Structure to design on (164 residues):
């Protein structure tokens, strides 16, 4: 028995339909993708973690309530910090262009906006609490801030105290 593959008008229609279907599926897949947010990176010694924004409103102002809500969100991103370690924070240039500040918990620890992509801090006293005890984890947030308004987004990293 012999089989003949037809290359007539019907097979061209099928190929065209398949090509259109594949192109449509590709466009749908691309439209479902979102542009990733700028990233922030925290480095301690040779260890580094990088994160996208917990909350992000590209180019828009954020109310203080929105910032506090974002700062309180949980994160899966953490890094271990020992007493006396140097904590290095790096941000994408587009974050630095607008400016940014650092929060520990719900309080800002840097009052003037940082306009550079990199800033270092000593971890001395980082885990000390007002009541004289020591916390096991400190919530670090990087918040877009232009000197008058919070804007763009909030990036969160948990700082875990190194066990003695």
């Amino acid at each position: 028995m012999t089989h003949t593959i037809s290359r007539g008008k019907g097979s061209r229609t099928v190929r065209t339909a398949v090509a259109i279907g594949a192109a449509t599926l590709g466009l749908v897949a691309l439209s479902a993708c979102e542009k990733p947010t700028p990233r922030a990176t925290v480095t301690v010694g040779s260890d580094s973690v990088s994160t996208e924004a917990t909350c992000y409103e590209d180019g828009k102002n954020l109310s203080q309530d929105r910032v506090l809500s974002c700062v309180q969100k949980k994160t899966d991103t953490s890094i271990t910090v020992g007493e006396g370690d140097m904590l290095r924070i790096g941000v994408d240039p587009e974050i630095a262009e607008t400016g940014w500040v650092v929060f520990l918990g719900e309080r800002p620890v840097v009052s003037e906006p940082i306009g550079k992509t990199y800033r270092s801090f000593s971890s001395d006293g980082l885990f000390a609490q007002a009541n004289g005890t020591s916390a096991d984890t400190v919530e670090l947030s990087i918040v877009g801030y232009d000197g008058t308004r919070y804007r763009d987004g909030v990036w969160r990293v948990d700082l875990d105290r190194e066990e003695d």
User: Anything to note?
Assistant: The longest helix spans residues 9-32. The mean pLDDT is 84. Strands lie at 39-44, 47-52, 55-62, 78-81, 86-91, 100-104, 107-108, 118-122, 137-145, 150-161.
